[in-house]
Specification:
With 322 residues, this protein is α/β, with parallel strands linked by helices. It is built from ten helices and nine strands. Strands 1, 2, 3, 4, 5, 6, 7, 8 and 9 form a nine-stranded mixed sheet that branches.
Length: 322
């Protein structure tokens, strides 16, 4: 039996985060005729995540089921994909375990889908909920922490602008997912140690390339909890490195197969030009050292991205062959 809306929550050791999120979901204000469900996907947690979900199942809403699923293949992208496959909703909303939606988030997501039938996916307005006062420089790199504040009006992400919503707070039309998103994503990964990121952009690009519209919906608001360690230089540099190393694959998804061999050298030359230009002008600009480190790392990683991904494909091929 299908439902109108499914909320999918991938989590790893989320026992401390889940209660606040589940309370927010339990407090959703929805129309009486709206049927919806919540699916928590446990990605091999070693804490009390399963028990937390069981405790909430015992006192959950009678008209919106709370389901627990165990996904043993490690990686947030695998957990999210499993949750979407399990979802019965025509629409699937993706929340991380550190996301706190406003009480109208589900209702606003469903209303937007009705008003925009060609929307294959649309993202939320995301505010940072910092545990400590954030440094001023975070404003210039906030998008890497999934802080998305792009105004109070809906916004269509046009393909030529090359801007897309992140996976946190993303709502997918399940029809678009089933028809356009491959069963196995190239950017599936097991955290920053694998050197990759942007698997959410890979999903959205497949949907956009097929002709579906991608939107920003400011009526869907979320607070993203950000602990102090996510403001540290080492974490931020590591984060942008993964984004940069994944850039070549995202770029190639926007191109036809025949274009890729011709466009790739042009991208490499332009990326080299941008990196050199940045180094030359940097002494003249006054920026925080963390911002400089992140910007330099991003430009360098984008330049290296094609070679990094070619090496990865080759090593994966060797492993598969053996």
């Amino acid at each position: 039996m299908s439902v109108d809306f499914s909320v999918v929550i991938p989590t790893y050791n989320g026992a401390s985060h889940l209660p606040e999120l589940l309370e927010q979901l339990r407090s959703q204000v929805c129309p009486e005729n709206l049927s919806w469900e919540v699916i928590v996907v446990d990605n091999n947690s070693t804490d009390d995540t399963a028990q937390v979900v069981r405790d909430y199942q015992a006192k959950w809403l009678s008209d919106s089921p709370l389901k627990y699923v165990l996904e043993k293949q490690q990686g947030a992208a695998f957990a999210r994909q499993r949750g979407i496959e399990e979802a019965r909703g025509k629409l699937v909303g993706c929340l991380d375990d550190d996301n706190l939606p406003t009480p109208n988030w589900v209702a606003a997501a469903c209303a937007f889908a009705q008003a925009h039938p060609q929307a294959g996916a649309y993202g939320s307005q995301i505010h940072g909920k910092f545990e400590v006062k954030p440094p001023e420089y975070i404003k210039s790199i906030g998008t890497y922490l999934a802080i998305i504040e792009r105004g109070s009006k809906p916004r269509l992400y046009e393909p030529e602008k090359k801007m897309l919503p992140p996976g946190a707070g993303l709502v997918l039309r399940k029809q678009a997912w089933e028809q356009e998103v491959p069963k196995s994503l190239f950017l599936n990964h097991q955290g920053r140690g694998a050197g990759l990121a942007s698997e959410d952009l890979e999903v959205v690009l497949h949907i956009q390339n097929a002709g579906w519209e991608i939107w920003y919906n400011p009526e869907m608001e979320i607070e993203h909890k950000i602990p102090p360690w996510r403001l540290e230089k080492d974490y931020l540099v590591s984060l942008v490195r993964c984004v940069g190393l994944s850039r070549h694959y995202i770029r190639m998804l926007r191109l036809a197969n025949w274009q890729r061999p011709f466009i790739t050298p042009l991208y490499i030359l332009n990326d080299l030009r941008q990196l050199v230009a940045y180094w030359l002008k940097q002494p003249k600009e006054q920026k925080h050292e963390v911002v400089v480190a992140c910007e330099q790392q991003l430009l360098l990683s984008i330049l290296i991205s094609p070679f990094f991904l070619w090496k990865k494909r080759y090593l994966d091929w060797l492993e598969h062959k053996s």
